[in-house]
Design brief:
The complex is a heterodimer of chains A (345) and B (488). Chain A has helices at residues 3-7, 254-267; strands at residues 23-30, 37-42, 55-56, 61-66, 71-77, 80-85, 97-103, 109-112, 115-116, 123-133, 142-152, 160-173, 200-205, 213-216, 224-233, 242-251, 285-287, 296-312, 335-336. Chain A is mainly beta and 345 residues long. In chain A, the strands form 2 sheets. Chain A has a 16-stranded mixed β-sheet that branches. Chain A has a 3-stranded antiparallel β-sheet with strand order 10-11-15, with no helix packed on it. In chain A, strand 7 and strand 8 form a beta hairpin. The radius of gyration of chain A is 25 Å and the shape is globular. Chain B has 488 residues and is mainly beta. Chain B has 3 domains: 27-120, Immunoglobulin-like (Sandwich), CATH 2.60.40; 125-202, Immunoglobulin-like, CATH 2.60.40.10; 207-484, 6 Propeller (Neuraminidase). Helices cover 3% and strands 51% of the residues of chain B. Chain B starts with a helix and ends with a strand. At the A-B interface, loops of A face strand 1 and strand 7 of B.
């Protein structure tokens, strides 16, 4: 009788607060001609699994205002909800300060702190190094190309850098001779049915950034230096022939650098005891009615220099096994037969 | 003694340790940033910083145009519970003025100040307005910067109603009625500062003055009209009661009177007439039974001299004189694409290459610099040189050319052509012959079911004969209007 009540277990109900949906602002406006994109989303609860969806904030009125009072109206892209674009002719001006202002459909007004456009030196040169990354439990290493920029840092000012990948194009090689269609009622055969065309295409992709590439010139002020600015993973397709990428170098404010440094620390958490604790990183956006509201993201402005880099397969000291696509190369998303008009390796 | 000294030292140490010093909390105020600066408004961000829970009786900002903050503007935000950011806004400031601002918090009767920031209010500027051409009552957008809510807009001396001011950058206004001027400057007034655009705004213009009414209640259809030095003529054709009209009416601009002239030939409808020639047409004998009239006449002032008959029938043809020759284009049925040229010196007719589309006198046309311009049923403006058989599409008439319409008018005044007033249409358009751009003119007004039965240019002025359609009952005279394209 004594053991019976001991065996009863009362489930412990844990009251976990609902994850707050926070406005998230992502956008970089530079001195390059537009259109520049500002993306507005609402965050959602995150746990062991995603419990909600990251929803775009649509129907907002979004403007950028400079310190002389000139206003640029952004328009939401009908096919990319929550993405607001400046007019194509708009580019930021070095020395000017810009504020982002957002009025959401529910009447809330948000503004950024003014961000000044800082100048940026040119990318003097771009070089590449092959990087191998051992993967625990795998026999094959991951690998890819690390892009290294050489810059002459100006001595007279404190500079903060952000690098981003621009659009890229590479020569895609496939094997249409190995094409084997999926059996169907009309074509039940499981034999290869080679296609006469096409082996070589040019595939465009926007690979984004796998990490945050930033730097400040505390250690190299006024010196020529080389800094890793991008990593492009070898997926067995990209470096079979020639790969082209545009590297964007953006001069950002000290505050933007601090923000991105914190973001970098958070995204590069490896699970060790030395990792910084996860925390909400405040950006430069403020709710005019409630200045204490937490808004994620940062409105970044800066001068931009872009340099184009062609990477030949022979530039790699280690390459992944070539991935085989047994089909017409034109069937691959983003691939086309003709090279871009400005293809000049 | 030694024991006493030891006890004394220990006692002193214990005494020191026992004293706990109460440390006051640290509280400060920061004037962080100007979030928004306009011509007369500033939005400021401040922060109350403290290492402990505290309340402020009041907090906010001070603004002053003097560094010593004499007679400051106080932006009071009231009680604040605990530290944190706060935003304050001041308006009614002077434009283009330097202000000194600082945040404050009042805690326990003591005011704590933040550091002083210098902020210059901005100067308004205007950039553009669009459209640059509209009519009274339309809306236009003025773009600029630092244009506050109380910005006023004037078209000439007339103040416009401001409908919307978006972010001090876009002002939507309703165009006020104009007094007399077609082109007026747009002035934007911000407080005592007046800004004016370099380019004028253009009002949609066009005014119709009733000049005269044709006496006797006559209404004719499928008639002829022409003009010469003696006056403006219309006549023949079919009357409202289906009888053929036997006269030609002449209007004298000098005496402003109508005179009824007899025509020596047979009566007819759908004939053609130019300044010097008249002919063709048809007579309806019975149901679907017509007799074409091939008689051909030369017009000498108000007299008519018979010429050899036309070698072909001509019903509802377009007729014009060009480089001394008479041209007949199109007509009804099988004549629709025919192009004929008459040489008054050799008295001979030539048949030229056919037209690329069917033509009748329903099609408005005009002559400019020895070229004929005609609008086809689809609204395409053709430039025609019949001698070289050159037919080129030049523009597109933006008005209505629906199938029920036709009978539009077209005339040239200087480098502008005026096209419109199709049947049941009151629209008029101006075509700039240098740029081939179209601009709407004010509508004619009056009875919508009207048709144009004559149009003339004399002494730089356009005259239009307009009458109700045949099915409109009642005694309604044909009216003659003078059209002033620039009239407001």
């Amino acid at each position: 009788m004594l053991l019976v009540p001991v065996a009863c277990i009362d489930p412990y109900e844990v009251d976990i607060e609902e994850g707050e949906q926070l406005l998230t602002v992502e956008g970089i406006v530079t001195t390059q001609p537009g259109p520049h994109r500002i993306r507005l989303t609402k965050s959602d609860t995150y746990g062991s699994v995603f419990e909600g969806l990251i929803r775009p904030v649509t129907g907002a009125t979004v403007i950028i205002r400079d310190d002389l009072g000139e206003v640029i109206f952004l328009e939401e892209n009908a096919e990319e909800r929550g993405a607001y674009y400046t007019p194509s002719g708009f580019s930021a001006v070095i020395g000017r300060s810009y504020s982002l202002q957002i009025q959401t459909q529910d009447g809330k007004v948000y503004t950024s702190l003014p961000e000044k456009v800082e100048d940026v030196p040119q990318i003097k040169d771009l070089s590449v190094a092959t990087l191998r990354i051992p993967v625990e439990g795998e026999t094959n290493d991951r690998s890819g190309i690390q892009v290294i920029a050489e810059i002459d840092d100006p001595v007279e000012e404190n500079n903060f850098y952000l690098w981003q990948n621009g659009p890229s194009v590479y020569v895609l090689e496939t094997r249409p001779d190995l094409y084997t269609p999926r059996p169907s009622d009309t074509n039940p055969s499981r034999d290869p049915q080679p296609k006469p065309c096409c082996i070589t295409c040019f595939r465009s992709e926007d690979i984004g950034n796998q990490s945050v590439f930033i730097a400040q010139d505390d250690n190299f002020n006024g010196l020529t230096t080389q800094i890793p600015v991008a990593f492009i993973e070898d997926d067995g397709l990209r470096f079979v022939n020639t790969y082209r990428i545009d590297i964007r170098q953006i001069g950002i404010s000290q505050e933007a650098y601090r923000f991105l440094k914190l973001v970098k620390q958070q995204v590069e958490i490896s699970g060790s005891v030395f990792d910084p604790p996860p925390a909400t990183i405040r950006g430069n956006m403020i709710n005019l009615e409630n200045p204490e509201e937490v808004i994620l993201g940062y409105f970044i402005v800066g001068a931009e220099d872009t340099k184009r880099l062609y990477i030949d397969k022979n530039d790699l000291t280690f390459a992944q096994n070539v991935a085989i696509i047994p089909d017409d190369c034109r069937e691959v998303e983003g691939a086309q037969l003709d090279p871009p008009a400005d293809w000049n390796p | 003694m030694r024991n006493l000294l030891s006890i004394g030292i220990i006692a002193m140490l214990l005494l020191g340790w026992g004293c706990t010093e109460e440390e006051d909390g640290l509280t400060s105020v920061a004037t962080e940033e100007a979030l928004f600066v306009s011509g007369e408004k500033i939005r400021l961000l401040g922060r109350l910083i403290s290492n402990q829970a505290m309340n402020a009786d009041d907090h906010g900002f001070y603004l002053s145009s003097s560094e010593s903050f004499t007679s400051p503007i106080k932006v009071s935000l009231g009680v604040k519970d605990g530290p944190g950011r706060f935003i304050g806004e001041a308006d009614g400031l002077e434009i283009g003025e330097l202000y000194f601002v600082k945040a404050f918090a009042s805690i326990g009767g003591q005011e704590i100040m933040g550091e002083v920031l210098e902020i210059q209010t901005l100067l308004p500027a205007i950039i553009d307005f669009s459209p640059s051409f509209a009519k009274a009552g339309d809306e236009i957008i003025i773009t600029g910067k630092v244009l506050p809510e109380d910005t006023r807009v004037f078209f000439g001396d007339q103040e416009a109603t401001v409908l919307e001011n978006t972010f001090e950058a876009k002002i939507r206004v309703r165009v006020p009625p104009s007094t007399t001027e077609k082109n007026v400057p747009i002035r934007v007034q911000v407080r005592d500062l007046t800004l004016e655009f370099e380019d004028n705004f253009e009002y949609q213009s066009g005014k119709y003055f009733l000049v005269s009414e044709v006496p006797g209640g006559v209404r004719v259809y499928d008639n002829i009209f022409f003009q010469n030095s003696e006056g403006l003529y219309f006549g023949l054709g079919r009357q409202k009661n289906s009888e053929l009209y036997p006269y030609i009416q002449r209007y004298s601009l000098q005496s402003e009177t109508w005179e009824q002239l007899s025509f020596p030939g047979t009566l007819r409808e759908k004939a053609f007439a130019t300044e010097h020639f008249l002919g063709g047409g048809t007579i309806q004998l019975g149901r679907d039974e017509f007799l074409d009239d091939r008689t051909f006449w030369k017009i000498n002032g108000s007299n008519f001299e018979k010429l050899p008959n036309l070698p072909f029938s001509s019903n509802a043809s377009v007729a014009f004189e060009l480089k001394g020759n008479l041209y007949l284009l199109g007509g009804e049925a099988e004549m629709a694409r025919r192009v004929a040229r008459y040489n008054p010196i050799t008295l001979s007719w030539d048949m030229l290459m056919d037209a690329p589309f069917e033509i009748s006198n329903e099609r408005p046309f005009f002559i400019y610099r020895d070229h004929v311009y005609m609008i086809d049923p689809e609204g395409v403006l053709w430039e025609i040189d019949p001698d070289s058989n050159s037919w080129q599409e030049k523009s597109f008439y933006p008005g209505n050319t629906g199938s029920a319409n036709g009978y539009g008018m077209a005339l040239v005044l200087g480098d502008k052509a005026y096209v419109g007033l199709y049947r049941r249409s009151q629209d008029m358009w101006e075509l700039d012959m240098n740029t081939l751009s179209w601009k709407p003119k004010n509508s004619m007004g009056g009875l919508p079911q009207s048709v144009t039965v004559g149009h003339y240019v004399r002494d730089g002025k356009i005259y239009i004969l307009r009458e109700p359609e045949v099915q409109i009952p009642g005694v309604i005279n044909i009216e003659m209007y003078r059209f002033d394209p620039d009239g407001i």
